[in-house]
Design a protein that fits this description.
The protein is mostly beta strands. It has strands at residues 3-7, 10-12, 18-25, 34-39, 46-51, 57-59, 67-72, 77-82, 91-97, 108-112.
């Protein structure tokens, strides 16, 4: 079945960086677009970055210029490099296909606080 295992989250101070990883399994990875989503307390889950099967990327305005999404098709893994983190980036981060499968991993929590 479709599975996602996200990792790399943590507690950081504003301005610091984190790199998230997501290992995917249960589907053919290389032909599909993948995305990183996040859900902050009290908010709906939103897409923050996506990458097509050919490597084209797109970002929501609030993270553009600070976050970089990438993928390794051989490892069936998608990454999110997050720089200059802000308190408003605090959320649980998930990866999934674009559009999502409906099944989600446990996510990885990112907390940005001084």
């Amino acid at each position: 079945q479709v599975q996602f295992v996200e990792s790399g989250g943590g507690l950081v101070q504003p301005g610091e960086s984190l790199t998230l990883s997501c290992a995917a399994s249960g589907f053919e990875f290389s032909p599909v677009a993948m995305g990183w989503y996040r859900q902050a307390p009290g908010n709906q889950r939103e897409v923050v970055a996506d990458i097509t099967n050919r490597g084209s990327t797109d970002y929501t305005d609030s993270v553009a210029g600070r976050f970089t999404i990438s993928r390794d098709n051989a490892k069936k893994t998608v990454y999110l490099q997050m720089n200059n983190l802000k308190p408003e980036d605090t959320a649980v981060y998930y990866c999934n296909r674009i559009p999502d499968f409906g099944a989600w991993g446990q996510g990885t929590r990112v907390t940005v606080s001084s």
